[in-house]
Write a structure and sequence with these properties.
single chain; 73% helix
Length: 247
């Protein structure tokens, strides 16, 4: 019997897409930020600006923001009652993250390069990543803090078989690492020790996020292929009882 439901397809597809966006972002962002150098004002930034390497990390960041809440919607719909509070928290924080950083990265992808190309750089230091006065950089901290909360709390919705347990562990680890980086950098500012902790947390995020979301996608595929039985993984629920049936 075909047990595939729309949420299993959405969860599987978006899980893979999230991994692709995360790897793409990491590969493009690390060399860009390492080559940015010390902040010497908006005129120096504009003179050295290269749209290609810049957009190479902004575009996947925007796609990540637009996809993340969709994954958590699928998780929430697939979660039985006893753990739905965790999936709902995950979806709520993911939606807030997507709204804030979706708008933020749209500004970074359009307004910033267009302003630099037009030579309209007055006050632009408030909008570019790399400036110590950047509003968009501050919003990144807010957004990734919300993403960390979504991963931390939403990860608790996964339970049951071995695969679901590993998904939960990786999601919780990823969320905790993100929150540590955001809190330390937000509290201490751009001092070397805080930036080192932030980059370490980014490394943990970059390693665990794509693995966790791919495993989440595999988990949804198991559910779609008839895995919604007591003997296999559930998104949530330790006994694997299908939602709507008595125990």
């Amino acid at each position: 019997m075909n047990t595939e439901r729309p949420e299993t397809t959405v969860g599987a597809v978006t899980g893979v897409l999230l991994a692709v966006w995360a790897v793409w972002f990491t590969v493009a962002f690390v060399p860009w930020i390492n080559g940015l150098g010390e902040w010497n004002g908006i005129e120096a930034y504009a003179a050295a600006f290269e749209p290609g390497p810049y957009l190479a990390w902004v575009v996947p960041s925007l796609l990540l923001a637009l996809t993340f809440a969709t994954f958590w919607a699928a998780v929430h719909v697939s979660t039985p009652g006893e753990r739905r509070v965790w999936s709902l928290l995950g979806f709520g924080f993911a939606t807030a993250y997507g709204a804030i950083l979706g708008a933020n990265y749209f500004v970074l992808a359009t307004f910033v390069p267009q302003s630099i190309a037009a030579g309209a750089t007055e006050g632009l230091d408030l909008f570019v990543v790399g400036s110590p006065y950047s509003v968009t950089g501050t919003l990144e901290g807010v957004g990734y803090g919300l993403m960390g909360l979504a991963m931390l709390f939403g990860g608790l919705a996964f339970g049951g078989g071995r695969l679901a347990v590993w998904v939960r562990r990786l999601f919780v680890l990823n969320g905790a690492a993100s929150l540590v980086g955001v809190v330390v950098l937000g509290a201490a500012g751009h001092v070397p020790a805080a930036e080192a902790v932030s980059f370490l947390s980014l490394g943990v995020w970059a390693l665990t996020f794509p693995v966790a979301t791919v495993l989440g996608a595999v988990h949804f595929r198991r559910l779609a292929s008839g895995g919604d039985t007591p003997s296999t993984d559930r998104v949530a629920g330790v006994d694997g009882t299908p939602r709507g049936q008595s125990r």
